[in-house]
Amino acid sequence: MHAVLRMCCPDRAGIVAELSNFIYRNSGNIVHLDQHVDAQANVFFARIEWVLEDFLIARDGIEDAARHLVRPFDPTFFSLDFTDRRPRVAIFVTKESHCLYDLLVRHDSDELQVDIPLIVSNHDTLRGAAEKFGIAFHHVPIFPETKAAQEAEQVRLLKEQDVDTVVLARYMQVLGGTFLDGFAGSVINIHHSFLPAFVGAKPYQQAYERGVKIIGATSHYVTPDLDQGPIIGQDVIHVSHRDSIEDFIRQGKDLEKVVLARAVWHHVRHRVLTYNNKTVLF
Amino acid sequence: MHAVLRMCCPDRAGIVAELSNFIYRNSGNIVHLDQHVDAQANVFFARIEWVLEDFLIARDGIEDAARHLVRPFDPTFFSLDFTDRRPRVAIFVTKESHCLYDLLVRHDSDELQVDIPLIVSNHDTLRGAAEKFGIAFHHVPIFPETKAAQEAEQVRLLKEQDVDTVVLARYMQVLGGTFLDGFAGSVINIHHSFLPAFVGAKPYQQAYERGVKIIGATSHYVTPDLDQGPIIGQDVIHVSHRDSIEDFIRQGKDLEKVVLARAVWHHVRHRVLTYNNKTVLF
Amino acid sequence: MHAVLRMCCPDRAGIVAELSNFIYRNSGNIVHLDQHVDAQANVFFARIEWVLEDFLIARDGIEDAARHLVRPFDPTFFSLDFTDRRPRVAIFVTKESHCLYDLLVRHDSDELQVDIPLIVSNHDTLRGAAEKFGIAFHHVPIFPETKAAQEAEQVRLLKEQDVDTVVLARYMQVLGGTFLDGFAGSVINIHHSFLPAFVGAKPYQQAYERGVKIIGATSHYVTPDLDQGPIIGQDVIHVSHRDSIEDFIRQGKDLEKVVLARAVWHHVRHRVLTYNNKTVLF
Amino acid sequence: MHAVLRMCCPDRAGIVAELSNFIYRNSGNIVHLDQHVDAQANVFFARIEWVLEDFLIARDGIEDAARHLVRPFDPTFFSLDFTDRRPRVAIFVTKESHCLYDLLVRHDSDELQVDIPLIVSNHDTLRGAAEKFGIAFHHVPIFPETKAAQEAEQVRLLKEQDVDTVVLARYMQVLGGTFLDGFAGSVINIHHSFLPAFVGAKPYQQAYERGVKIIGATSHYVTPDLDQGPIIGQDVIHVSHRDSIEDFIRQGKDLEKVVLARAVWHHVRHRVLTYNNKTVLF
Q1: Which residues in chain B are contacts of A235 at CB distance < 8 A?
Q2: End-to-end CA gap in chain D
Q3: What is the ipTM of this complex?
Q4: pTM of the entire structure?
């Protein structure tokens, strides 16, 4: 079992020495150390993962000890996680099944190493998919006049299940500020274009009309600005004049599935750090 | 030696039969036949290349005969080219040398099978590169007040050399309407982003600030609307938080070179058809 | 509803004219015509798809008429298919679930437009996956001494269900000659390397030991020579020294799924032609 | 100006702490720290780059101090380089010009930040290319009976120019053991296939005959076993049945150029470590 420390702070000399000494003198063995400096922004980032067996500080004291250690560096972000605690993930969907099935199948083989206590949808369409894999399905319809109340109900369901990560697997609703406040930095979306191209609705249609020769998909953290949050991952495929919009959609689905799954994988492995509306992926 | 017929027209039954019969009954042997129907726009496209040895129509009569043949189909585009006529290409540059050198080196090994009678630049910076490869270099400075006159001079130089294709190899000036009127559909530009993302100036800077995980390059025909013309080709590479803007620029140059060279290759092989601000690449 | 004619024959002048005339004079409207000449091997290939509404030849007479038409060209391959007949596909698996689930989920949304009457496995491990999607699952264990008899049983099951295409979705048995004789050119396999590198067992292990910087997957038709059949499709991803064998396997699964699904899609759309142990993909 | 320390040694706790403390207590500021553990082989790798301004140890004492520091870890590789010393690179070519020109053009814009004191060739074909860019060109013909003597002459030329890195830019001769002994780990080759597929002569021809759907290029360090050395980088492009061998060659050249240039870039930036016939690329 490992501990994972992530932090970012203003850059200065000696941070890595301080962190690595802390682990070494407490008999930890580092298995991964990733460090990055954004020279332009003068920000230091680190992710350190070490073996806890033989570590001299008791598990429930590690976070406090580490926070104390890094306080002099004025961290703007700090997190201490343990790899034996399985993240609890909720999946939000509407009617498109491909990303949902993709996540459920990965979950079935425990590739993601998470718990998925529930699926939430504004339609009842995908209940059958959820049931095939034995995951609770909650139909929470959204109408303009009830949106605030229904989002409160969504939050209640998530809190009840102790959810820490929300994955929008082609969820066709814009999340309100109240919802996002409760899960800031923990809501992952898949957008079916290579952002920032083709923001908003019907990106494949937009791509087709522009005559592009590549189409893409982008995973990103959700912020109040539509499709503007920090990008986690992107991938593309080449298309040609022979591809119709239907071909874009069919082939694009394969991109969406993989790009979303990779983003979830990095997030739940505690491999992402966010700053200045960008991500660092270790 | 081959003839290449390209056309597009409203789709209807029998066009391929008519075209292939024409060639067959005149003892031509088809080496490539590419056909495409845009079902949404109801447009038919074809490119047919055939061997002229033994062809029963004399070379200088083929274009008229073919035009006569396709007239009933009301073509919106028609072109008849011969593969033994080398396209005459002018390269426009400013200060960046990588795309220019790339084209000159390809020209040196005759990969492109074109003539390059001249290079035009609004700066004198790249004269040495042109001279290394023995190509005439014309310095035509552009200032706002002299732009119209200088573009007229550019057109004069191109006409004098019987140029049919203009390649903007990182030419940092917007071409005026008069210039474009004279070379409509024959001016190819390279833009250093995956369009339509990051139109305009400093696309790598824009990409860096948005925190994208892929960067790209796009070749397109130039139209009066900046970076909005029909896309010929695109390619991308993956980047990460470790890449600085300088790394984007350095790695992006390799994309720009290849994407531009491929576009020129397709254009001078008569493999591109344009419609609705898109391209068909055969 | 469309007819699809595929053929290959020695190249000579006039073939396209003959085929397109045949369709035109019988009031068919061509929606796709793809033609290719392998100049080195002097072989002509064509795939023509046309609308049957208004076609003057009755459906059950088309194949004979077309065969008669092409006889003078001495075709080495000829096939006439109708797009309203759904191919009948059997999936063979062993214990790995990812390719099976991928195909089942695509089948669930009818992306592939095929019938899947049965799944065959030499182990009982994946029965649950089959049952989730309501597909019959047949456990046919294979031991060296019973292999011939068990393959005969497999063939019996397939014939009973009128299967025309067999997809090996990580089936870990070498198929015998008797089996292959009955389904020549109709058995598609996925191999988890970019063939011809890393033939045989444990390709990810082989790739890891060689220290490659890309890993791949290859779909191909199965022939009696292990991993030597005509390649249908390939794709790769970049890896680095940070990727362990487990990372190769995890990321490789996403390649395998997509490369296999694309191969099935092309095959059941009648878009593949095979010659000289290669494929033409229209 | 920076110092770059690279090392690998058996893995154990405390190495990063020791290295980072050393730099910190001597007033160095780390700009890049990359660390990797091959858990399977139990090997630790590190590359640390730090600013030398204000460093308390004089430049000519740093290497000894660092060697002394890491001795207890029993390093199997150790290197200390300074970024203000420009590597001295010799390019070996035969008749193909594309990789040579590519390197010369990059050198012309100082992208690689190296000195190129000479080009060596077993033919006189590319003398003109060298002269265009003002680099000394040495024609050292190789015949079986004179090979040993001529390789001795090559080594003499390289030693005379204090060359530390040899780049085989499509050099069509196998280097002998004597030559390789003198430049072990410093000879970079480009092979025009995705190794280990298509070792040896005419890889594009081999690829065409096998009917692959991707072609590739591989940069690697040269060892006495042909095309078997540690792989530095690889890249691929998709091809189709429409591509002839000539198309493979033409498109493959663009791969070769970029894959070779990237390998040189990493090597001369001191970003590569070699072990077990593999590379770690930081």
Answers
A1: 214
A2: 19
A3: 0.96
A4: 0.97
